Amino acid sequence: MKSTELRSEGNLDQFRLTQMANIKSQKKRIITNEKRRQANVPVRTAMRSSVKAVEVAIAAKDHEAAVAAYNVANKRLDKAVSKGIVHKNFAARNKSRLSKQINALQG
């Protein structure tokens, strides 16, 4: 079975366990890395969704909705930074960009 077939079937964990060195500690690291990756997915998805919600509100020129969505996005960006999922400069850049667009709506 090819690696692409394994990925398409959702057997990524099995693929990762079969393609590695024979070192016991490395096998453990691969398993823990996969667990951490899966734990980070919902945080990253929520962060991206909240940023997109702000962008949609800005596109609709709805200042109140944009501010409300920005507050949620701000919190989720900070949470992603605190968990080490994204870099602090990435979050700062996104917050700055969104707040500039929201302020432009108001005036």
Short structural summary:
The chain is mainly α and 107 residues long. Helices cover 82% and strands 0% of the residues.
Would you give an account of this structure?
The protein has one domain: Methane Monooxygenase Hydroxylase, Chain G, domain 1 (Up-down Bundle), CATH 1.20.58.110. The chain contains 5 helices and no strands. The termini are far apart. The chain has 107 residues and is mainly alpha-helical. The chain is elongated and about 60 Å long.
CATH architecture name: Up-down Bundle
* Main structural class: mainly alpha
Radius of gyration, whole Å: 19 Å
* Secondary-structure element string: HHHHH
Taking all residues together, what is the mean pLDDT?
Answer: 87
Largest sheet: none
Through-space gap between termini: 60 Å
- Shape annotation: elongated
- Could you estimate the helical fraction of the residues in percent? over 70%
* Highest CATH level, the class: Mainly Alpha
Examine the coordinates and then state which fold CATH places here, giving the name of the CATH topology.
Methane Monooxygenase Hydroxylase, Chain G, domain 1
Helices, by number, come to 5
Percent in strands: under 5%
Name of the CATH homologous superfamily: Ribosomal protein S20
Number of strands: 0
Uncertain segments of ≥5 residues (pLDDT<50)? 1-6
Count of the separate structural domains: 1
